[in-house]
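Render ClpX C4-type zinc finger protein in 3D.
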Amino acid sequence: MDPFERRERPLLLTPEGKTCSMCGRTGGAGDRMVGGFGVVVCADCVADAHRLVTGGAEPDAADVPWKDRSQAEILETLPRIVAASRQMERFLFTWVAVARQSGISWAHIGRTLGVTRQAAWERFAKRLPDVPAADQDVAEEVVTEQ
Ligand SMILES: [Zn+2]
């Protein structure tokens, strides 16, 4: 099976420290949250989403989340977007680490992301938790190949 065609299924997550990608609420003990492909969704948002997708209503392009919000409410939203974005970034780093641990080269990772292997290495290598020492050799190779 082509892994890129496989549908990612949601997983039940430990909620502590997770940010709901739909409402921006931070999970804590006793919360129920699911996640998949970089998003985390709290139980309330899952229930709301289920009602929306099964309710028979048609999408309304004018129904945007910032409609009817005060400036204070808009500002309160910004850090929640940043938290969700950081969570997505951690998800990407986790998958890059998995790719590296499975033996995929920086060149292949870079090509997949549409960047050079040096760009991939510069973005990810220093922040990966288990970067093998051999990666220093890769870095040297990448730098000298330009
Ligand atoms: Zn939520």
